[in-house]
Amino acid sequence: MGMVIAAARTATHQGPGPARAVELASRAARACLARAQVSPSSVGVLINVGVYRESNTFEPALAALVQKEIGINLDYIADPVPAAGFSFDLMNGACGVLNAVQLAQSLLDTAGAERVLITAADVHPAGDARLDPDYPYADLGGALLLQRSADPGAGFGPVRVYAGDGPADTEGYLDTAAMGSAGRSRITVRRSEGHGARRAELAAACTAGYAREHGIDLDRAIVVGPGAEEAPGAGEPHTAAPILGYLRTLAAPRPEDRDRLLMVAAGAGPSAACVSYRPEGW
């Protein structure tokens, strides 16, 4: 049985208050579960992959807070069926969602879970990316619900991770010497000149390499690449970019000669990840 996407959703910053990573991830996840018409208790594992967070919060693991907001098996003694919910953070920047897909494949293949929910959200430390023109990323959340499928032609192929040459050209960090008492609401993001072109070149190289390795005809594939388009609101999508790209691809007309997707992510490291995917019914 292959692993398929049962549902996917994104969430953007709404309202006058500050954006919260947990709220965006949870809202996308609830919409995802509603779309799939399944209850939170049917999710065995939640993997959260967001990086940037309000007030620069790094502990505790946000996955547990997202799990609580969604209501996934909060009392495993009183409600142990189908299984006690388990959640954890996985942080690998732009490649995080595809790394989580790789983990989900192992969990579903070994019957470690019936469904795996992946959440991603990035927000400006001050809670509104629109107010900081130098901050490159959007306040954006996303969620993927993954489960096994009886369709033998549907699902994900193996995930492959690729390392690029040269030093990392994107850094996000807290400059404590410069921030003083405002460190909870600021972050420094440095990207060297030409980083976008290098990221695109790495994504193209790993996509071509993946296609050669797995015998995929690129003329019959739709590449869902790093988010070149702006996310709704302002800025670039970051960890939720593969989810946004997937939804936009499904919403667009599909050429009849295209029979699969190639999902690729590239970011700091430099590193990239690629995986093939065929939705059910294609």
Give the full name of the CATH homologous superfamily of the largest domain.
Thiolase/Chalcone synthase
Strand order of the largest sheet: 1-5-4-2-3
Kindly state the percentage of residues in helix.
25-40%
Characterize the biggest β-sheet: 5 strands, mixed
Using the alpha-carbon principal axes, give the shape.
globular
**Number of structurally distinct domains:** 2
Strand percentage lies at 25-35%
Any idea of the CATH class of the largest domain?
A: Alpha Beta
What can you tell me about this protein's structure?
- The chain is globular and about 55 Å long.
- Helix 1 (21-36) packs across helix 2 (62-70).
- The strands form three sheets. Strands 1-5-4-2-3 form a five-stranded mixed sheet, with helices on both faces. Strands 6, 7, 10, 11 and 12 form a five-stranded mixed sheet that branches. A two-stranded antiparallel sheet has the order 8-9.
- The mean pLDDT is 88.
- With 282 residues, it is an alpha/beta fold.
- The chain is 26% helix and 25% strand.
- The chain folds into two domains: 2-151, Peroxisomal Thiolase, Chain A, domain 1; 160-278, Peroxisomal Thiolase, Chain A, domain 1.
